[in-house]
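Q: I'm building a small set of examples for a reading group on sequence design. Run inverse folding on the following structure and report the sequence directly after it, with nothing in between.
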């Protein structure tokens, strides 16, 4: 097998379910590829570059096949579908969102996706400056949501999942903090797909309201 950054990244992503991001090492990636660790350094100089390559693969897979909105397709529905793709790609791997957070993704797929998003927003009536603010907001919301979503699996905790609803109910004094106890119970009993969509729609509504206010002032 020819070793390159893409092959290394895919091998590293394949190890995440077993070892998690904190347990991932260059040595383990090399063992998964049946090579010596120094062979990896021709393609990724250190773990930082490894994470960048992993993030690139997650993003590239997420946006594969993305096209501009179809005729008559609402721009908000298009944005929701795009961010949903990224969320699903991150969820495919344990700690997938942590991999993407704070990494440097330089790839034609990234620039093409940003260009499509900017053009879609401008076609929807956004000014250039307003449109340029939207993509980072959507990216940060999506990555942050999935970080929290994946944390709730409790995979990092040796003594059981602290996010388990029964444990949370025991931890919160419902007599003293009834609203908090109800909120937590409702939050952790909610369909995460619906919760993600709701949060995204709130952000889009705020973006739209801010755009309208700035244009009318």
């Amino acid at each position: 097998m020819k070793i390159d950054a893409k092959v290394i990244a895919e091998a590293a992503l394949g190890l995440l379910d077993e070892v998690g991001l904190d347990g991932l090492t260059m040595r383990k990636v090399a063992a998964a590829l049946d090579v010596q660790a120094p062979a990896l350094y021709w393609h990724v100089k250190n773990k930082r570059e490894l994470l960048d390559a992993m993030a690139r693969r997650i993003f590239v897979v997420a946006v594969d096949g993305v096209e501009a909105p179809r005729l008559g397709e609402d721009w908000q529905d298009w944005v929701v579908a795009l961010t949903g793709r990224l969320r699903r790609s991150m969820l495919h791997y344990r700690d997938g969102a942590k991999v993407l957070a704070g990494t440097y993704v330089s790839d034609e797929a990234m620039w093409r996706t940003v260009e499509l998003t900017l053009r879609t927003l401008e076609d929807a009536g956004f000014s250039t400056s307003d449109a340029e603010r939207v993509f980072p907001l959507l990216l940060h919301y999506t990555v942050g949501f999935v970080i929290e979503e994946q944390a709730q699996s409790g995979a990092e905790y040796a003594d059981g999942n602290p996010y388990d609803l029964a444990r949370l109910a025991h931890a919160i004094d419902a007599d003293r903090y009834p609203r908090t106890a109800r909120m937590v119970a409702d939050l952790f009993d909610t369909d995460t797909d619906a919760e993600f969509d709701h949060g995204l729609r709130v952000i889009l509504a705020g973006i739209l309201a801010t755009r309208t206010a700035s244009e009318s002032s």
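The first helix runs from residue 5 to 19.
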